[in-house]
Amino acid sequence: MNAPLITIKGLSKAFPIRLGAFGDKAAVVRALDDFTATIIEGETLSLVGESGCGKSTTGFCILNLQRPSGGSIVYKGQELAQLDDDAMRPFRRDLQIVFQDPYSTLNPRMTIGEALSEPILFHKLATKSELPARLSRLLADVGLSDRFASRYPHELSGGQRQRVAIARALACEPRFIVCDEAISALDVSVQAQILNLLLDLQDKYKLTYLFIAHDLAVVRHISDRVGVMYLGRLAELAPSSDLFANPLHPYTRALLSAVPEPDPKSSRQRQRLQGEVPSPLNPPSGCRFHTRCPLAREKCKAEVPALREITPGHQVACHAVTSATTTQWEPVSA
Amino acid sequence: MSAVVEDKPNSLWRDAWRRLRRNKLAVAGLIIIAALVFVAAFGPWLTPYDFLSQDLDARNLAPSLAHPFGTDDLGRDVLSRLIYGARTAFLVAVIVTLVALLIGVVLGAIAGFYGGFFDKALMWVTDMTMSVPQLLLVVVINASLKQPITLWMEARYMETMNPIYRNSALIDFVLVFGSMALISWPPYARLVRAQVLSIRNRPYVTAARALGLTNRIILMRYVMPNAMGSLIVAVSAGLGTAMVLESAFSFLGIGVNPPTPSWGNMISDGLRVWTNYPHLLLAPAAVLAVVTVAFNFLGDGLNDALNPKGQK
């Protein structure tokens, strides 16, 4: 097993907001609560969950693009969580991000060449004379020809723009890239191309990915480990094969059973969840999933379940799960 | 988009220019404004007469070949005065807009980008400035500052004998420019602030932050260039407004003082005698109207060209 690259402990993010017609009521959106995980060098760690569950916030907080409200992020022995902009700058090179929307990810007033040159020149990764060769290598890395360097973003297709966004992240020669729904906005055929590109680049440059997604089929295909998030908390974290073969958390089970099956004849048992995701403004007490959980008991309302390792590498935050094969309680009928 | 991709890159500016050229009204506005700029720039070589030379034998003449717009009550050629009035109008409009723009863009960009207390303070100041009736503020400034400045200038002249202090037109210009810039900058500041606020959270700005670029680079290279489109539209409309404003002040007698020709004081003079000599009112009023409309057409055209999404 490789060495840990980034160690995250108790990461939290709360957004203070104002409510009411006159903004007179202060409230706090707890977007991310007590996120603890270690990102291993060279792996692809995926985070899945419904929208609003805090998976993107996790990525933003790790990169310090949103200042975490609590917790620690250790990279290269350095605590990143509370660094200011100037202190963070040397680490930015190593930690990059690719965004979801290919249409707003590039500055419309800059050519592709300018956009890619900026980080190279800023971090002095090449001299002016080396720049053209460096640009053409970057573009080749993401499967684009040299002539794209003089084009503007609005002349490119969504897939091409996303390739440029990846090239921009690569321009810094990073070690870690957060892919924040990086393929979700693309056509399915283009998704596969970009996905394969990301995998090729990972091999070539020994990259570590935090892959934020909601498409479970994609996640299963590319991930080494998968974390399932619900309402700002990590519900389950396990090696990909383990998670898909033997989901332990009741929310993970419901989520996996909701994946569409390509074969219309296959019949299977669906586990439908009742109700809506509660508001992160006023999250349920105890286990945040207890309002919709088929296994919920009194204890779940009172106590927040800690993330426990059930089998090696397989962590679950659920009072009901005690071993890899049994759950402590039977589902409540009706 | 044509099916064949030309190999020349199309910047957004080039695209905008292409769209602007297809808009007939905007092109008409642009031509009128260009003609006006030309006339204002080369005025002294274009005017058939000196705008000051009086010919008391030829007062209030109707338009003729010798005087295309006639002559006024002192026998001065109206066309020549209109051309010099264009110089005044342009000088005021351009300088006022530039000063207002400088203040507005700098304050608005900083407020929008960094937020915090400075942002709040700036909004208070703009609200306050915008809540005071504009004409009243300018009248007060001119009425209260003109005398002390004039006295000071005279004192300086006595001390230094520098002829620059005898030029009373300078006081007019400084007061007019100053007070107009003072009432003109808040809308620019608010516009820029609003633009910056909406742009600073776009993914490409976040990406620039993730690249480790400094705030100054992000503001100058990522945020401001994308705020330019709306700003250009506002400036085009603002130039027209500034010209009308200058005429309004001159009309009220608080702007540029005679004998410096200004469309506003020409209209004001013409208004007194229009029943007998309508051309003295019509000529400057028509020119002002045409120029204002030209700026509005251009502004509309620029708006459509620079923000094509709003066109649907």
From TrEMBL, chain A:
GO biological process: peptide transport; transmembrane transport
One Pfam match: oligo_HPY
GO molecular function: ATP binding; ATP hydrolysis activity
Superkingdom per UniProt: Bacteria
Subcellular location, record wording: Cell inner membrane
Region (Disordered): 259-283
Annotated Gene Ontology cellular component terms: plasma membrane
Membrane topology qualifier: Peripheral membrane protein
Keywords in alphabetical order: ATP-binding, Nucleotide-binding, Transport
Limits of the ABC transporter domain: 6-256
Family annotation (CDD domains): ABC_NikE_OppD_transporters
Main subcellular location of this protein, as a coarse class: membrane
UniProt record similarity statement: Belongs to the ABC transporter superfamily.
Protein name from the UniProt record: Peptide ABC transporter ATP-binding protein
Species in which this protein is naturally found: Neogemmobacter tilapiae
From TrEMBL, chain B:
Extent of the signal sequence: none
Record keywords, A-Z: Cell membrane, Membrane, Peptide transport, Protein transport, Transmembrane, Transmembrane helix, Transport
Organism name: Neogemmobacter tilapiae
Protein name, as recorded: Peptide ABC transporter permease
Pfam families the UniProt entry points to: BPD_transp_1 (PF00528), OppC_N (PF12911)
Keyword Protein transport: yes
Main location: membrane
ABC transmembrane type-1 domain sequence ranges: 86-299
